[in-house]
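Researcher: Structure for this, please.
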Amino acid sequence: MVGEVPAQPAAPVLVHVVATRPDAVTLAPVVTALEERGAFRQLVLHTGQHTSPAMVAEMFADLELPSPARRLDAGAGTHGAQTARALEAGETALAQLQPAAVVVSGAANSTLGCALAAAKLGIPVARVEAGLRERDWSAPEELNRMLLDAMADTLLAPTHEAAENLYREGAGAGRVHPVGSTAVDSVRRFVGRAVARATWRRFGTERGGYVLVTLHRPANVDDDERLARIVEALAALAQRVPVILPLHPRTRERLKPMGDAQRLLAAGVLCGPPLGYLDFLSLQAGAGAVVTDSGTVQEEASALGVRCFTLRSVTERTITVSHGTNTLLGDDPRDLAEVRLAAGPPTPAAIPLWDGRAGERIAEALVANYALVRAPGSS
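Model: Predicted structure, token format:
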């Protein structure tokens, strides 16, 4: 009809892939920043790799993420099985959703499967946490990181150091965007709310008077002998200072066969179920020290200024070591028993780009690259 205002084209779809707790933490600030810009219709695809209610539903609620629009069934299993299931199901979901781009974070097997599906369908992949390297090819996550970065059209690096890794590996400057850590964005946004919960009181401890422990990596929990040595060291540590250990589902299952769970309880280690984001952040903020093998927890502890000890010989978050907020304990679990509480109040690290605005920088890059791009197959 003459004079009729033409209908506005629908906003392009952007799909965020969430496989694990850290993925939700790192992608939430991106979703929030993009929502303010209104350039995309955002959908969350949950791969199903983590199925615990505390690690999915409560996590999404705490981080104010929209409920997943699609759920795959990557589930547990071997590396190949998880990757293959996510590739197959992800291909079907993405072919139906026809997004302008797919945003991925972390280094989970099911994330790799979804990214492969996107690449095979000709859908661009934007990679949060690009360029992190631990140089340990025995770690499954390292291979996944390399493959994800190789497939990604847009590489969003959390540090200048990570960006330099990508340049050395041949990534063109147009693909690489140093943006900062979105995990730090989440800490800054939610720490006040988390501290108000004082979750440490549920465990009968005082703020600053306990060690928070989180362990889940296969290298630490899948070998019975190593796990037994870790349990022995934690039991020794608990004789000197309260130890709070929220049990990742993988770790809980590995502790059962050899009776290690009972040994921890008998030693006074305060074991508990997996926690939602706010409760776990509360425990981190209130800890006198954190022991972990998680990459994201290393970043969160640095942002909080809480002393961090990492039960690994190498870390992809090398900047936390160079800035003095994180200590690598190495491969000997006995060193766990020597962890000490901080003598003074927390001192957050002043790491470049970790200023709480990484999500905004990522949103700007995504809008610039994909907001006017037609979805594959659209006319």
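Researcher: Any notable elements?
Model: DSSP finds 15 helices and 13 strands in the chain. The chain has a mean pLDDT of 91.
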